[in-house]
Amino acid sequence: MTPTAPTSTENTSTPALALPLLSLAAFGSGISLRVMDPLLPLLSKDFGVSLGDASLVVTVFSIAYGLSQLFFGPLGDRYGKYFVIACAAIACSLTSGLCALAGNFHALLFARFIAGTTAAAIIPLSMAWIGDVVAYDKRQPILARFLIGQILGLAAGVFAGGMAADAAQWRLPFFFISTIFIAVGGGLLILNRQLPAHARLTRTVEGSAILHMFAEFRHIAALPWARLVLLTVFLEGAFLYGPFAFIASHLHHVHGVSLTTAGSVIMLFGLGGFVFAVASARLVSRLGETGLSLWGGATLAIALTAIGLSTGWWWAIPGCFAAGLGFYMLHNTLQINATQMAPERRGAAVSAFASCFFLGQSIGVGIAGRLIDHLGSTPIMIIGGIGVLAVSMNFSRLLRGKQLQAAAA
Question: pTM for the whole thing?
């Protein structure tokens, strides 16, 4: 297995649009991920299913998204990460169109499943590509700026879903998503030809691609720190997104607010993430990775608990903002560790990270969807908050120990 790069006479500098286009692709991915949350009550009504069953449209997307990471990581390493992202964006345009055209609930579930599959390449391969072209000491702020696209996409997803739910038009957001992806995918394909050689690195792999893929993940799984990071992000996804998928429904059913208003409130999650992205360099300098993970988890836990226990819907305004800030403080710290846990297999490593995160989400939403019809949404929020706090405290403690060990060596 040897690194290869296309011969080129291009400049060695990366085009200025390379990162913004990836961020736009992440924007589309973010919308796809969260657009269904405010639509669950409408889907429940239109298709005659329970709210818990309606949440399967979120679960199947996350399962497909998570499992497909295991395929796209090695594929990106082999054929070029930027090129694979471009192809995936165009495929997302087609699968989003299928969601819009679904004729019944089972067809929608199938369309959401394959939409999750095609969207799976975008975020992890973008992170891995950034890891290839940006030095470690400068990487965390760059990753944070890239994730502005996903952050805004998550916010736009819940807002668009809320508006579509109040208008009883759940198909409309998917036509919008499809348009975004076809435009971004075309731009990525064009720009891929302009990338310098070091930004289009591929690896020549001899023998079976399937056997090579399993060998990649066996190598990553053999690393103790990698196993810890993967387990942590799995639990983070489960404890956060189990309750998060039902915040809009909670505000609608418990406090009687419209789904458009609920979606607008949840957009503040994205604003919290945006604030982190803008202030990331200063926060990293002041708190370090251990402080970011600890205080991020604590902030997120307090926010989820406050949303669940509040007697007025307006508590969700600061709650959603704080949840977004806390989440990105914790998650960005996990991401930066993921890009470095197996540098020679970065595409596969980051894909395994994203896979664990979204499999955790799917399990969290699935369990919450089964429990919410029996327990109600408030206990789901509290359990999520407690779980996130425990996860962040444990990771911060172990990360501090790792850093002290490295300093002593």
Answer: 0.69
Q: How far is it, in rounded angstroms, from Cα 29 to Cα 39?
A: 17
Helices (H), 310-376: 316-338, 346-375
Residue 60: what residue type?
Answer: V
* pLDDT attached to residue 296: 94
List Cα–Cα distances, 341 to 155, 183, 271, 347, in angstroms: 30, 34, 29, 11
State the average pLDDT for the chain: 84
Maximum CA extent, the chain: 64
Burial of 271-310, coded b for 16+ CB within 10 Å and e otherwise, reads: bbbbbbbeebeebbeebbbbbbbbbbbbbbbbbbbbbbeb
Q: Which domains, ranges and CATH numbers included, belong to the chain?
A: 14-197+209-408 (1.20.1250.20)
**Model confidence over 141-191: pLDDT tens digits?**
787 778 788 888 887 888 888 889 888 889 999 999 999 999 999 999 998
- What interhelical angle do 56-79 and 81-101 show, nearest 10? 150
Task: Give the separation between CA 80 and CA 184, rounded to whole angstroms.
Answer: 17
Q: What does the block give as tokens for 150? A: 């996903």
- The C-alpha atoms of residue 389 and residue 67 are separated, in whole angstroms, by 26
pLDDT in tens, 316-362: 899 999 999 999 899 988 988 887 777 667 767 877 887 888 788 88
d(CA 263, CA 267): 6
d(CA 73, CA 30): 19
- How many residues in total does the chain contain? 409
- Pairing between strand 2-4 and 202-204? antiparallel
Nearest to 146 by CA among 48, 65, 33, 27: 27
* CA–CA gap between residue 321 and residue 275 (Å, rounded): 9
